[in-house]
Amino acid sequence: MPTIKDVALRAGVSRSTVSRVMNNQPYVDEEKRKAVKQAMKELGYLPNSSAQRLRGTETRTIAVLVSRIVNPFFSAIVDAMDEVAAEQSYRLILCNTRGSANQELHFLQLLRTKQVDGLILASLVNDWETIAPYTDYGPIVICNEYPRQSDGVPVVTIDQSKAMYEATVHLLKKGYKQIAYCNPITKTESDAVISPLAQDRYLGFCQAMEEAGMHMYGECLFLGHSLEDGRNIFKQMVCLANRPDAILTGSDEVAAGIIAEAKAAGWKIPDDLAIVGFDNQPHATLIEPELTTIHQPVQEMGRAAMERMLALLRKESPPPLATYLEAPLLARKST
Amino acid sequence: MPTIKDVALRAGVSRSTVSRVMNNQPYVDEEKRKAVKQAMKELGYLPNSSAQRLRGTETRTIAVLVSRIVNPFFSAIVDAMDEVAAEQSYRLILCNTRGSANQELHFLQLLRTKQVDGLILASLVNDWETIAPYTDYGPIVICNEYPRQSDGVPVVTIDQSKAMYEATVHLLKKGYKQIAYCNPITKTESDAVISPLAQDRYLGFCQAMEEAGMHMYGECLFLGHSLEDGRNIFKQMVCLANRPDAILTGSDEVAAGIIAEAKAAGWKIPDDLAIVGFDNQPHATLIEPELTTIHQPVQEMGRAAMERMLALLRKESPPPLATYLEAPLLARKST
DNA sequence: CTGTTAGCGCGTTCAG
DNA sequence: CTGAACGCGCTAACAG
């Protein structure tokens, strides 16, 4: 594996000259510049980025942390980020934390050790106090999941309360009486703390219920975020004394799981049970009945987050601190 | 950001002693060991991995290259790899090449510059001659997509020809006459070369057709790999002079797109058109009718690939060169 | 058992 | 315009 030294030797110049050529610096003799480029090509030379990093130069690489890459919402948001990054010849590396606070911290090291220029948190499991120190090591942008306070760090998300409020109102207007609720929990190893995002959604739900003079039964509260979780939720629901006639979920995956089991059990959707998803994932319109869901603007969220990141890296005027994108309810056949 | 020097100073020892403590080496006075650990904790010290890398030590990080992370097949395979890696406290970084040969090469640099200990190719767009030199820089494992020859590099995949052969036979047995075929092409920037994987699948298809004395019409050949591609394929199909009565696709996403459009156009599946998917993605049984598809053992593929990688890193006896896992056809309602 | 020394590959002064 | 020299943070070899 050739180093800068080999290139210098072959081109008959010093290492500094090679370095200057690499970084397109002026004041290099045209002849030598050509000789160096020639030597680089012949040797298949590529600079060692660990060394460059150690020296403190940019990597044009950005890390994105997600908790569960198999979730279509996350892969879509990452895809949007990737698109913007590629346009400006940045690369992305994707870190799947599996909802582990430890993994999250491990990946934050990428920033600390200058292996990436910046880091985007699309999920968040550690306390903000734990994350905050890392802001000294490079720009951080928060997208989707967020902490209660995030001193100075840009946040891109949707108004979770409002979204869930509207979904609840939608069900109430349709006349559903016994509404169940599923919290979108990512099981953490140790503590299963409810994130601000989940809290806010629940708040929206409660507010709508209260305004309608309805109240909730504890047994109608569920947890889950995957297809499998959805299946299990239906099985639990069947056993309840007074069965819900509608359910609000935190993701289209959970909703799809419930629908699948319900249909298998011979239930009619939405007559026997109405279901609301969240995200508007690609499969929301492929299942039957088509899923009523809240459309998360993943494309825009991903793009906006990455654009803020690139702006930070260019040290432009600081981007807006918090951005709340619109997340409209899409009423379809499942309610 | 504290360095090893700061820790040494604070603990009243030399940098080498700190290094020895970090790497759990013997021959360090217990007192000093404690002092060092104390100092590390107080300073919140973490080693700079760029420096470690430059020095040539392991990173316990493995890169995985995929062409399209939004494809559930890829996110599932990555998830399985991640699981195995986590068990042995390795971390994974995910590289989305978007089918770009350039991006692929960029990411291969991670290996060259020792930023990762090993690299798994779950997709492959460059020629093997281009990739081969990188095998000098660290272990590479190939999973799913493969080159024609891969001198010494372990490959984990399925028997593509056999899988598609069986799917074709299934359709023929059911009595379908006019069978269309969709090649799973990842559009490359420049050249849209057909990969060995796609070639082999097509071979299986052709063989089955030949044995049955059937033959293909060029107009019944399509390309695509996404939901959107599937939708477009249906629109093209509608315009054909003699319409196919069945279609074999290269992924469940394409199949789902075709089904969606077909249903929207009032076609009955499988009566007006039979559809076979590929992968057995989570949503294959959620759509209506349930999709006949080839089950790719993503879990096993991902695990096997990662296990081979870890074996290589431990420099154990060389793993088997090529592994072909079973990919059975699951006959369901769409045929 | 421990500190000193010498690079890993690169970018950046600072003298020419 | 160019090369010599230094140091980024870390580890390994070598003397104590």
From TrEMBL, chains A, B:
Keywords, ordered alphabetically: DNA-binding, Transcription, Transcription regulation
Coiled-coil segments on the chain, per record: none
HTH lacI-type domain segment(s): 2-56
Organism: Shouchella clausii (Alkalihalobacillus clausii)
A GO MF label: transcription cis-regulatory region binding
InterPro entries per the UniProt record, alphabetical: HTH_LacI, Lambda_DNA-bd_dom_sf, Peripla_BP/Lac1_sug-bd_dom, Peripla_BP_I
SMART domains, per database record: HTH_LACI
Pfam annotation, one family: Peripla_BP_1
Name under which the protein is recorded: LacI family transcriptional regulator
Keyword DNA-binding: yes
SUPFAM superfamilies: lambda repressor-like DNA-binding domains, Periplasmic binding protein-like I
